[in-house]
Amino acid sequence: MVERLVSLSVGIMLSTSFLHALPEAFASGTDIYKLFATLLAGLFAFFLLEKLALLRHSHHHEGDGHHHAHGHDAHAAGKSGWMILVGDGMHNFTDGILIAAAFLANPELGLVTALAIVAHEIPTEIGDFIVLLNAGFSRMRAYVFNLLCSLLSVAGGLLGYYTLDRVSGLIPYVLVFASSGFIYIAVSDLMPQMQRRATVKESIPQVLLIGLGVIIVLFLTAR
């Protein structure tokens, strides 16, 4: 199920970026060179965030087949547990701001942006929950902390709505920055995961689900 959501996320995120968010930003009349510079800066920013392990977290699990001393992986995961929560909270807060900016620019764009973020966050949150359990969190504690981190998107949305509404000139830049994040995550994270399953049996559903993601976005924004 998670693998299927990854494929669907790619279609939704890329179509939201290239068919709606970027055209909306570039049609705003904002300096095109500044918008492209924002896109480039956004790609570099997400690359650096990934390097700092704020967007993705690689880790080993006990019994993963690697030869470590007993408890080594649990100890490493324990250290990363809180880091994951901090990174996830910051990510969710930013997502809230991006959704607010999209709704302020165009309600339809806001809808597909929210859909793109939700489609990506479901498999991400499942992965984070598993890591927190591996880090020693109880199921209830992991659930509560994940929920609190998710609620930060609401705080980001409120802040973005009341702030960006007064400085509407920033909205095109926020949309471009959001697009850079969607593109980076889809191309550098999700697609490589899909390429690991190169059999025809796995590839056909992947292609179909990417296409379904594009169709969903087009349907939701059809005029």
TrEMBL record:
The keyword Membrane applies. Pfam families: Zip. The keyword rRNA-binding does not apply. It is a multi-pass membrane protein. The chain crosses the membrane at residues 31-49, 143-164, 170-191, 203-222. It is found in: Membrane. Keywords: Membrane, Transmembrane, Transmembrane helix. This is ZIP family metal transporter.
